[in-house]
Design brief:
20 helices; alpha/beta; two-stranded antiparallel ribbon; Rossmann fold; globular
Amino acid sequence: MSKTPDSGKAEDDQPSTVEQYLVKDPERFALNMARMIEQAGKAASAWAEPREKGDVRDHVAEPVVDMVKTFSKLSEYWLSDPQRALEAQTRLFSGYITVWANSIQRLSAAGEDAEDAVKPEPGDKRFQDPEWGRNAFFDFLKQAYLVTSRWAAELVEHADGLDEHTRHKAGFYVKQVSNAISPSNFILTNPELYRETIASNGENLVRGMKMLAEDIAAGKGELKLRQADYSSFEIGKNLATTPGKVVGRSDVAEILQYDPATETVLKRPLLICPPWINKFYILDLNPQKSFIRWAVEQGHTVFVISWINPDERHGTKSWEAYIREGLQYGLDTIEKATGETDVNAVGYCVGGTLLAAALALMAQEGDHRIKSATFFTTQVDFTYAGDLKVFVDEEQVAAVEKSMNEKGYLDGTKMATAFNMLRSGDLIWPYVVNNYMRGKDPLPFDLLYWNADSTRMAAANHSFYLRNCYLENRLSQGKMELAGRVVSLKDVTIPVYNLASKEDHIAPALSVFLGSKYFGGEVDYVLAGSGHIAGVVNPPAAQKYHYWTDGKPTGDFEEWLAKATNHPGSWWPHWQRWIEAKDNTRVPARKPGKHMKTLGDAPGTYVKVRV
């Protein structure tokens, strides 16, 4: 079997036989079905008990109502014109007829192979088992499903008159439904699952239902889908292991300073402002993938903001509080630790958006400590924001705010679910099949451990972000209010290194490119290969992907890309050269704790608080 969940390739390539689908030991099979039902009862209890106690309140109505409203707008277009509706139905039935004809041809006495009416996409791992092609029944299910799901997607694509947000949501909901009803997700319609169930006399279902009960209990009444073997990892042991110290702690952040690895270091320290929607150690997964360790080895004195995993005590912590008690507190700590007031800063994702807003505010306040800014996959203009925009409109934001105000925070599982749903075909359903139907533990994978290590969102901060950035796009328009001031990115005149990723679905390359034009100073736009994570975390030793450079982000994005220079490998050395070109002055290495008391070893305590 393949090592990845539900990759689907069978070991036995012998011709399909009825025998492999017949129960061999009815008594044992029946016993395991009884055991499975017992475990299902435990799963049901784990789900029901927190609700009976009032610890969990379901908010199913809001997303269901939104989906119904969205599909209603889509249906209105197709059903308002009888001719248009007939043509759409004809396309679907034509596909079904072709699938049916192919199946009849395969079952005929001639036994001729017929060309599939539709084939899976090249990267689709759901239908790799040979039985999906050689067994007429499973092949029929596969083709009928693909015809239906692609027809539904085309309904969204070709619905004229839909506003872009509604079209975006409709496409998202169609994709969720299509991924959920795939025949690969059900035992009786997935040949590999069917064979495994028969071969093990249903023991896979007993194990799977036991895992389901455990995951619901771990989620305190909500399903906490395990995507990796979490027992294989521990923060500070085999994750986030770059040596350093905690040199500062506020209500919202710990400031980490890392041990030097060179005799001399760049005079300007480096402050990294990561997102708080995830944890900072995506930049320090292991020694081979660690941007933090690599930066230390290049001679940077690296400081990192490790954000608090907020609870009800932090509900009123605002966007401004994250600037004052996080970013500016980090600058204050750097000055105490090193005596330096000139700093290079890096912001990643929403951490970069915070950094950009802070720079605009600090420019008005006369705080010029940050001398260069690097943005990793950061949006400052949200006109063409990524897939997360599907969750943002007035009704949805109001519902989120109502939920947050009950506790003072947005539960981390909500954000984790949102991110997983954006790629449900990769991050949800393969693990549902692998864990709960095949009854197999997921493999240890550091990236998926990090992905599941979700964080809560402080209510005031998250509400400000959703409204001012995604909903009203105030930062790029010079309308964001902070500390009683209206801030403008035109006031940010320091050099900017603006990194985007070519396949990023959260901060699209186009969105980052357009955002570059709002800064008031020199901006170097660089495009990395791959996506939101892999495009950033791409160490030179891996020799993967490409990156594109062409200096200033002027004109149309496609024109810029056509003229840009393509470079193989990692962009990290290019960034290092950019930093050194601004100031390459070196000083003796600085050890944490030389000028101030340390509060413990990196990675600190805040990062270890789990949801």
